Structure formats: structure tokens, C-alpha cells
Amino acid sequence: MANSGFYERIGDGKFFPNEATIGPWSSDAQHGGPPCALLAKMMDDFSRSDSTFISKISIEFLKPVLFGVVEVSLRIVRPGYKVSLVEGELAVNGEPTLRGRAWRLRKTPNRVPEVSMAEGLVLDPEAFEVLNLDAFPYISNIEWRFEEGSFYDPGPVLVHARPKIPLISNETTSGLAEMIIVADSANGISQELTMGEFVYVPVDLMISILDEPIPGEFIKYDARTRIDPGGVGTSIMTISQGGRLKASSLHTLYVDKGKA
């Protein structure tokens, strides 16, 4: 299929996942990145207005995101000129699966003095070798260039990444959606315990956004995961592009021995 993406649009607010959405745990389950990005995109489109942008996204995982017909429902909770709030729910085969909230804030040029958002040296992502990953379909549809750390080694990472395919077939993908497709991988790419021997179950994804990334370009993800011996974890990620801070994300994790 020409320009095939993570999803096919099959109706008003309805989509069907392609193989590229499949994650590491089961061929019947999607990775969290694409459905979170889809819900974020739909909330963004539904509430869009001039000079405003999505400044915070919070998504709760109600259950695993299975492979099936995806339907998104939306509502405005708080309308407003400067600040507004939209809620969305993503259901799979009629079962509520993700629940999201997005705050939209108004931006005006030079409203406050500029504060530096520089994030260290600006290094060309192309200078780092592409790591071809094919362990499962989702991960093979992202271009990964690791600056520090590795997917195969435990510990924090600095990685430049971008999706190879659009979120929805034959549609343009926003910088917001591209960022979220990858950001949900924070706990996987910065794992502290070997995936396969231990299972990481995210219960949420929260992203505070200063500025939407430019679509189609590499985004840099600085990710670290911390795990308490009791089996509760946190993944924290700083997200930048072109040497400027774009967003910060947080995952809350249930961690246990064995497979999901």
C-alpha cells in the first residue's frame, strides 16, 4: 500500500491498525506509542484554534491495547480563549482502552522575556550509526541513532529517532504525533532490567510540552528509568530538537518478573 502508516482510516474517528503497531509482548497487542499518538492527534485536531497549541498531554492505560478496530471519542471539558481542556477516549473493538486529557495554551510572540532552552551541544544525528532493530514490527518502523547507551545494554540513553512511516496512511503526521510515537518507548530503550526476564507495564504517559517539534526531523530523547525493589518504576525523558528543549515526559511503571 502506498505510503502505508501505523493505521488505516476506515471512518469518522475509526481506524484499523497495521502490522507496524505490534509491540514486544504479543502479536495480538499494539505498542503503546502509535495509539497514544493517535489519541493525541485526534485531541489536537478536535480542539485546534489559532495561536494555541497542546502544552500538556496525559494518557492513562486502562488495559492492553489489543489489535482491532480503534475508535476515538472526544469532548471539550473547558473551553477558553487562553486555556482550554479536551478529553478523549480510545476504544478497541468497543472496549475503552486509553483515556487522555490535553491542555491547550495560547502563545503570543514576546509575551515574556526569553529564557534559554539550550540543551547542550548540537550534534548532527546523521553522525551516529543507524541501529537496525527488528525484534518486533513497531521498533523496526522507527529510525534509531544512539548517541549514548544502547537498546541492548541497561541504563540511560541519548538517542535520535524518528518514525519511518506516517501515523495514518497517506496523511501528514504532526511533530506532536511523531514525538509521542517514540516517547512511549522511554522505559524500553532505557531499561534497567532485561526485557523478557522482566515485564514493564506503563499505567500512564504524561508529556509537558514547551514547543512542538518540527515534523520529519530527528528528535533527541534523553531517557532514564528508575526502579524500586518493590516493583514500581519511573521513566523520565527530556525531549529536544536542534539543541532546544521541546518537552519532558514521565511514565509510571509496574515491574515484575516474567512476561506480560
Summary tags:
260 residues, mainly beta, Porin, 13-stranded antiparallel β-sheet, 13 strands, 12% helix, 42% strand, globular, Thioesterase superfamily protein, Acyl-CoA_hotdog
CATH superfamily: Acyl-CoA thioesterase, double hotdog domain
Which regions are unreliable across 5 or more consecutive residues at pLDDT < 50? none
> How many individual β-strands?
13
Please name the CATH topology.
Porin
- Outline the biggest β-sheet: 13 strands, antiparallel
In terms of topology, how is this protein built?
Blueprint: E1 7-11, E2 14-17, H1 33-47, E3 52-61, E4 70-78, E5 83-92, E6 95-106, H2 137-140, E7 142-148, E8 157-163, H3 175-183, H4 186-189, E9 198-202, E10 204-209, E11 219-227, E12 232-241, E13 244-257
Antiparallel strand pairs: 1-2, 2-4, 3-6, 3-10, 4-5, 5-6, 7-8, 8-11, 9-13, 10-13, 11-12, 12-13
Helix pairs in contact: 1-3
Characterise the protein shown here.
With 260 residues, this protein is mostly beta strands. The protein has helices spanning 33-47, 137-140, 175-183, 186-189, and strands at 7-11, 14-17, 52-61, 70-78, 83-92, 95-106, 142-148, 157-163, 198-202, 204-209, 219-227, 232-241, 244-257. Strands 1, 2, 3, 4, 5, 6, 7, 8, 9, 10, 11, 12 and 13 form a 13-stranded antiparallel sheet that branches. Helix 1 packs antiparallel against helix 3. The radius of gyration is 18 Å and the shape is globular.
Give the structure's gist in a few sentences.
The chain has 260 residues and is mainly β. It contains four helices and 13 strands.
